[in-house]
Write a structure and sequence with these properties.
CATH architecture of the largest domain: 3-Layer(aba) Sandwich
CATH class of the largest domain: Alpha Beta
Largest sheet: 12 strands, mixed
Distance between the termini: 63 Å
Mean pLDDT: 85
Strand content: 25-35%
Shape: globular
Oligomer: single chain
Number of helices: 16
Length: about 625
Amino acid sequence: MTPTNLRNLSIIAHVDHGKTTLMDAILKQAGVFSAHQATVDRVMDSNALEREKGITITAKNASIMLGDIKINIVDTPGHSDFGGEVERVLGSVDGAILLVDAVEGPLPQTRFVLSKAIKHGLKIILMLNKLDRSEISASKERVRDVINQCFDLFVELGASEEQCDFPVVYAVARQGWCTRNEEEIDSLLAGTTPGSLQPLFGLIRDYFIAPRIEDSPDFKMQLSNLAWSDYVGQLAIGKVVSGTISKKDTAYRLGYAEDTGAVVSKRFQVTNLFKFDGLTQQEVESLSAGDIGILAGCEDVQIGDTLAASATAEPFDRIIVEPPTLKMCFSINSSPLAGLDGEAIQSRRLRDRLLRECRSNIALRFEEAEQADQFFLLGRGELQFAVFMETLRREGIEFMVGRPVVLFKRDENGNLLEPIEEAILDLPAEATGDVTEMFQGRKGLMQSFETAENGRVRLVFAIPTRCLIGTRSRYLTLTKGTGLFSTKLKEFASYKGDMLARKNGALIADRTGKCTDYALSSVENLGQLFIKPATEVYEGMVIGECSRENDINVNPVRPKKLTNIRSVSSDGLIILAGHRDLSLEQMIEWIDEDEWIECTPKFVRIRKKILGANGRTVIRKLKD
């Protein structure tokens, strides 16, 4: 396989615009699966968390054969919290399919991924997906409007003339067809004309260029991903830009020291080499220029490192990602119930695990805290932290995390600056008033207001990042689950003033034991419960949200005293109003600065940092 027979491309889009569904259709129609082979939907979302949440979290590689042309395809995440995955893989491909919802049009993450693709000089195909939506059949003008919006976005982002002259493909990835002729859309939707992805396959083969390689006989490769094998150990994934590497060859890892930035090198021997064959890895004897391959033999490796045949080779520049805007404090589990559900690890092991995650995810950064058993992890958003926390839980580890803290800056005059997000909301018109009131109450400033023919509106707010924490779940409630919510970092601006994390206080258990329905029947009059009867609690554990502004210490374990007096009114069944189960993401949004989230493999609890009631105040306004 020579470089002229290779095509390396990625699929980029905003979240939920159909990337993984398109990958399913491509793999099926390219003959990756046998006729008798059972397949599942969203086959590229192999991670259990990805299938549960319905989003792509990590970039993944696959390959198909179109005649004598081998196509290496990278499926990338669409959520802004995982933008680091996109940034590091675009350097290993030479083209991109930009997938855009034909109704929603380009959204914030569309702008982000497109800007990165343009910066890398990639050739781009625009694919308009979801043409089967009812809004399209009602107004075909929407399709043309989206194309014009995409063209304007290309120009705004500084695309070259060649990139602006992009081909357009109309598709319904769920049904597995596409066309380049707008006149064929109606017949394909009606099913009178059989459809397939052959127009896209032909465009990939003819429009995209062969891999760009360096004119040098010496082996050189930049790593864009890492994996692990129980058989051969650490796996380094990347594109070979020059030369050839074979098994048992000697190579060098070239990286940068974290403290000084100086180039460091380490010698190693290549033990195994692999190429992508469909969804599997095929062992090979060598990798050549243009290949996206997998190399084993170097244990101490990081994303962005350069693998070369010589220790004196010039390493590639570091992969630069967007800076973090939030940080969270991770700590060992110090609650009275520590070690009962999982492994209560020591601070050294927690530190090593956080550092290992930062090596494989360049969008995360690690910082030491003042306390020896606490560490900071810097990232982009609540969902990114929630996914990592869930991963640790499934590894059987117990730990605690604090409320996300926004990373501030200072200008040359010493004035405090905070990150400002651009929030784009697509929601039903009847929910506009409630949503606008919520965002304006959180220091949001409306930038634009657009109405659509389908009874929906699009609002754009400029709002501080810290004020966005806790808005997503409430926004979905106000829009009855039909609202779309997208954000992107806009700028750093002057500090907008103080604001409480939440309006209501917490209901806090004042003693240890099992909750009784008798005690909870009295407690629930004070607010909304988070727990159910028979739940094990301890002093300082948060069991609900108070209906008032301040915290209240309550006794949820009080039993009903037995007497020899019986009455019809007092001996009836106790029926509680119910409790609210908070997801991990909702807990991250809910907690305040003086609270921890205690994570174990079986339970997720909220607790106060100071457990004893005599050591903390219940007046929340004093803590702001």
